[in-house]
Amino acid sequence: METIKTDVLVVGAGPAGSTAAAEAARCGLSVILIERRSKVGEPVQCAEFVPRPIFQEIEISSDAISSSVSKMVTYLPSGKGFSIRANGCILNRDVFDRELAEKAKEEGVDLLLNTSFVGFEEDGVILRGIDQYKVDVKIIIAADGPLSTVGREIGNRNREFVSAIQYSLPLTERFDQTEIYFNRKIYGGYGWLFPKGDIANVGVGVKINSHSKVFLRRILDWFVERLKDDGKVRSQILSKTSGLIPVSGILQEMYFKNILFVGDACGMTHSITGQGICQAVIGGKIAGRVAAKHLKFGTSLSEYKREWMSIFGEEHERARRRRRILESRWDELEFILPECWIGFRDYYR
Ligand SMILES: Cc1cc2nc3c(=O)[nH]c(=O)nc-3n(C[C@H](O)[C@H](O)[C@H](O)COP(=O)(O)OP(=O)(O)OC[C@H]3O[C@@H](n4cnc5c(N)ncnc54)[C@H](O)[C@@H]3O)c2cc1C
């Protein structure tokens, strides 16, 4: 079997992996970025909203932005709506991911498509592309999404998930706000309507556990009927997607030996909103930089955890605690939401 040598191997070319790879290469390391799919960013499994502050972290081209939003309206189960200012944009997530991977290549990263992480051997990592080969690597950055194979190999993985399903539907008229719908049918999650020009991402995310058998598609169809009755969308389904969102909070081990976990593979998604793009991008940058400092100057990998937690730790922990309340008092949804959803002031108390 052929053996390749590199300083850093990044597994997964999503926002976390591409950003980590670019940063490590920019700091002078040799980097291989592998992606099991044949195309970066496809298929899209995302509602594509990012808050405005992400623009301070990365450059996003106009091609990667579909539309801007200025408000978020939250609907309680009773139908009452609450609006807050929430600037952000709806991405063209395929373009966004592709551009991040392109930037990594410009920094000198070797991107290998159709290539999967398979497992560890005593003296290296096994990858499978057209052939199977071994990589002799100093640092591994695991950015391989919610069901991380790297994490599974060493028993360091996400435990709880919201299962999400989404249609793309035509809007009856354009608008510039994100809409969030809570209803007891959508257990442990919510429905969303995110406008994207003349169309919208319409989805539901439901907490899955061993006791519930979730008929996700039926819940989404019910939600779409409701939006149709409200005159917001038309029934023609333009595309469908689905995916898992980790909601158990950040992994206990953000790094283990010479492996740094980042993005969804590390449980960086917000336990209440399910958003994870910002945390993945910032986490990727920190991971790439700390990997370089570790190899060049012997800096401890614990700096990675310290830096990420100093930015997101407090909010992340709040979201984790709010989810416990949300799930345990689901029958009282209307009344607990002010404390459990980011659209209300009480949430931040
Ligand atoms: C339906 C849905 C809607 C969402 N909506 C939003 C939203 O509106 N806003 C928001 O901020 N977040 C949203 N999220 C979450 C967001 O998509 C993730 O947080 C984000 O994609 C995390 O990026 P990542 O790079 O960590 O992982 P991913 O984007 O999942 O990338 C991981 C990559 O690793 C690759 N990979 C996996 N295993 C291997 C392997 N063994 N070998 C090689 N490659 C591998 C995968 O193919 C993938 O390309 C949503 C998620 C879902 C499912």
Summarize the structure.
This protein is an alpha/beta fold and 349 residues long. Helix content is 29%, strand content 31%. Strands 1, 2, 6, 7, 8, 9, 15 and 16 form an eight-stranded mixed sheet that branches. The protein has an eight-stranded mixed sheet with strand order 3-5-4-11-12-13-10-14.
Notes on the protein architecture:
The chain has 349 residues and is of the alpha/beta class. The chain has a single domain (3-348), classed as 3-Layer(bba) Sandwich (FAD/NAD(P)-binding domain), CATH 3.50.50.60. The chain has seven helices and 16 strands. It has helices spanning 15-26, 93-106, 149-154, 216-229, 277-297, 302-328, 333-340, and strands at 3-11, 31-34, 49-51, 65-75, 81-91, 110-112, 116-121, 124-128, 132-142, 161-170, 177-181, 190-196, 199-208, 239-246, 255-256, 259-261. Strands 1, 2, 6, 7, 8, 9, 15 and 16 form an eight-stranded mixed β-sheet that branches. Strands 3-5-4-11-12-13-10-14 form an eight-stranded mixed β-sheet. Helix 1 packs parallel to helix 5, helix 5 (277-297) runs antiparallel to helix 6 (302-328) and helix 6 runs antiparallel to helix 7. The radius of gyration is 20 Å and the shape is globular. The model has no long low-confidence stretch (mean pLDDT 96). Flavin-adenine dinucleotide binds next to helix 1, strand 3, strand 7, strand 10 and strand 14.
Spell the H/E element sequence: EHEEEEHEEEEHEEEEHEEEHHH
User: What is the CATH top level name?
Assistant: Alpha Beta
Which structural class best describes the helix and strand composition? alpha/beta
Helix content class: 25-40%
Task: Give the amount of beta strand, in percent.
Answer: 25-35%
pLDDT under 50 segments (min length 5)? none
* Total number of beta strands: 16
The largest sheet, given as strand count, sense and whether it forms a barrel, is: 8 strands, mixed
**Bulk shape:** globular
Small-molecule binders here are: flavin-adenine dinucleotide
Mean pLDDT: 96
CATH architectural grouping? 3-Layer(bba) Sandwich
How many structural domains in the coordinates? 1
> In DSSP terms, counting alpha (H) and pi (I) runs of 4 or more, how many helices?
7
Q: CATH H-level name... which superfamily?
A: FAD/NAD(P)-binding domain
Query: Could you please say which CATH topology applies here?
Result: FAD/NAD(P)-binding domain
* Termini Cα gap: 57 Å
| Integer-rounded radius of gyration | 20 Å
